[in-house]
């Protein structure tokens, strides 16, 4: 199973939930590429409860027609401020998301220098190397031999990770579709009407830029219930592009 | 007018479109704080055509009840790879968004070390100081005395900047509302039904985490047309919290 590295990232922890044969990659996009090419499993972050969707995962789900979500794992995220000797230092290494999730906490610290790096585990590695501070997971603290200065109290902080493969899954209690619609009054309304008539609850709806045309979007919609052929046929009539990306269980 | 600094950022360029008395801030959140407290103007990035919404701006629009959008400026974004002497170097400084917008271009460069910093202008400053490369605006290239290695061809790259103040604007041809709804089947459908019946086109809809309750959201919706009291009264009946954030012109 492939995950976003380097080692001891939250993605690493999520991957270990499913398998003990896990391999790091350099980016989320690389995971999609490998999963499609080698017909293996991958684990990617989908959405964080504080910061919202992970765009790179959503955009790749839309891009790769043959990759589906098989399971979703809802992981509680605990962030720690740490350093080599457990003491406050001048410089803090952090990644973009961990920084945003800890912003209130960081403001009160009066840190001289904040260095942005690509992941929480890279932050841990650099904090060790340069005798600085970092924001990272407990797994990273332990594996880089750091000491915790303080647990950052970020209540309600969860990340949903998706187990992806080239095989669609049909029998979970949550499903995801991606779609585009015409840019005209009522287009999105006509899609939602179908869910309303079938009495299906939506659990998530996001719009993402199409990138090829400015200010045009595709939609990312999760609903309660499993794969339903009749529902998808109705949706086909009111969308331009429609992609079913799997019915899955949330662990 | 206050903008996200340091100097020579794209926000700086956008601010100069409206005023020649412009002052940098350290964060988007700081702009909202100052605009409310001092009753002045601010300029904040709202959305990028490739990377989607700027979460910090959206979340602050929701948080600050007395701040409204007065104008939106749709600015074409041209990114440049630059260094002190115009030659390729080992290290690249970039911010998170510029990196995402240039990812395809960067992949082909075989760069040894990528350092993430808080803004494109900070990247330019560090590139000058450390004889490295950066991704930044033409304004930053000129003001830090750098030389362009190559224009990064990011087609369809635009950023919408909002001019914000403590006074609502009522007469533009676009309007924004923020709202929350009950988590039940048909809740969002009931909101969109009103726009459908009034034959009003939606130009943007995003959901954002509420942060206080995991996996609960507020919605950010832009529509064609100006402030309409009757429309807002209908919307009040189908939403829990409803915030009108201004009708404005797009420049």
Automatic annotation (TrEMBL), chains A, B:
Keyword Ion transport: no
Pathway(s) per entry: Amino-acid biosynthesis
Gene Ontology MF terms in the entry: prephenate dehydratase activity
Domain Prephenate dehydratase: from-to ranges: 1-166
Descriptive protein name: Chorismate mutase
PANTHER family: PREPHENATE DEHYDRATASE P PROTEIN, PREPHENATE DEHYDRATASE-RELATED
A cellular component annotation (GO) from this entry: cytoplasm
Domain of life: Archaea
Keywords, comma-separated and alphabetical: Amino-acid biosynthesis, Aromatic amino acid biosynthesis, Lyase, Phenylalanine biosynthesis
ACT domain ranges (all copies): 176-249
Amino-acid biosynthesis is among the record's keywords: yes
GO terms for biological process, alphabetical: L-phenylalanine biosynthetic process
Annotated Pfam families: ACT, PDT
């Amino acid at each position: 199973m492939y995950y976003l590295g380097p080692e001891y990232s939250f993605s690493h922890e999520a991957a270990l939930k499913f398998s003990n044969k896990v391999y790091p990659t350099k980016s989320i996009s690389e995971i999609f590429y490998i999963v499609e090419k080698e017909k293996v499993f991958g684990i990617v972050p989908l959405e964080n409860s504080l910061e919202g969707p992970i765009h790179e995962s959503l955009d790749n789900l839309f891009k790769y027609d043959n990759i589906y979500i098989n399971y979703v794992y809802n992981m509680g995220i605990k962030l720690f401020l740490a350093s080599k000797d457990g003491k406050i230092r001048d410089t803090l290494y952090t990644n973009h998301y961990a920084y945003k999730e800890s912003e209130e906490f960081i403001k009160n610290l009066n840190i001289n220098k904040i260095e942005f790096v690509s992941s929480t585990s890279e932050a841990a590695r650099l904090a060790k190397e340069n005798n600085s501070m970092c924001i990272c997971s407990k797994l990273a603290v332990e594996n880089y031999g750091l000491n915790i200065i303080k647990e950052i109290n970020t209540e309600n902080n969860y990340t949903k990770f998706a187990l992806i493969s080239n095989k669609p899954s049909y029998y979970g209690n949550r499903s995801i579709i991606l779609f585009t619609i015409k840019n005209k009054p009522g287009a999105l309304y006509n899609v939602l009407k179908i869910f309303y008539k079938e009495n299906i609850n939506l659990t998530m709806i996001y719009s993402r830029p199409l990138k090829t045309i400015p200010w045009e979007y595709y939609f990312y919609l999760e609903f309660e219930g499993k794969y339903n052929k009749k529902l998808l046929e109705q949706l086909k009539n009111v969308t331009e592009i429609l992609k079913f990306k799997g019915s899955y269980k949330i662990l």
